[in-house]
Amino acid sequence: MKHTYTLSGMTCESCQEKVTKALQSVEGVSSVSVDREAKQASAEMSIHISQSVFNKALSKVGPYYLSNEMMVMDGRSMARPKRPLKDFLPIIVITAVIIVFTTLMVLFVDQGFEFGMRMFMGGFFAIFGAFKMFNLRKFADAYQTYDVVAKRFRFYAYLYPFLEIALAFLYFADIGGIYRDIFTLILMSVSTIGVVQKLCQREEIPCACLGMVFKLPMTWVTLVEDVLMAAEALIMILIAL
Question: For the chain, which domains are there?
């Protein structure tokens, strides 16, 4: 069986060599072909090897990611099924934890709607920022592939998790007021631009929202998160006016 994938993250011939060696290192692969210009990688195997296994091997050498798997068998091309819900389980669980935390805080502290929004936003930035900081280099590598600012200034990719942690503190401590909310609105709006661009290009790449601890594909879920946080910041601004 020959499997062909869309390949993202390659920028040079050195990348092509790294990807080829990483895919060849996976047990069960008989041959590998990588085309940097076409952004494709093909692997021949006697038994099917999961796309996630290949992506795990690739994550060890760089921000490379396989998607849109096509299988060729008996001269016929067959698309692999869409990603199952379980691929998004980490982000579903984490979001549920933030919601439960916010609900408990509102019930026990009883400070009203604005307090609840601050707790939700603080929890969001604290957890998501912490995951990004778990491996800063890998996060920066992945974030640079789609964020409009990080593409031009790599230091911003390293700075971004610290900005989220700082925002978490400001929301929990209720410091900064409308200026904090304006900054959050700008930050999340800028982040949304890169996500929209990639989704419009239909190029599936790893989402760096949880760092690179979990291999999550960038989908509309990523967009909803960024838009949600921007919308909450906007609501906080309107409340303050």
Answer: 2-79 (3.30.70.100), 85-240 (no CATH)
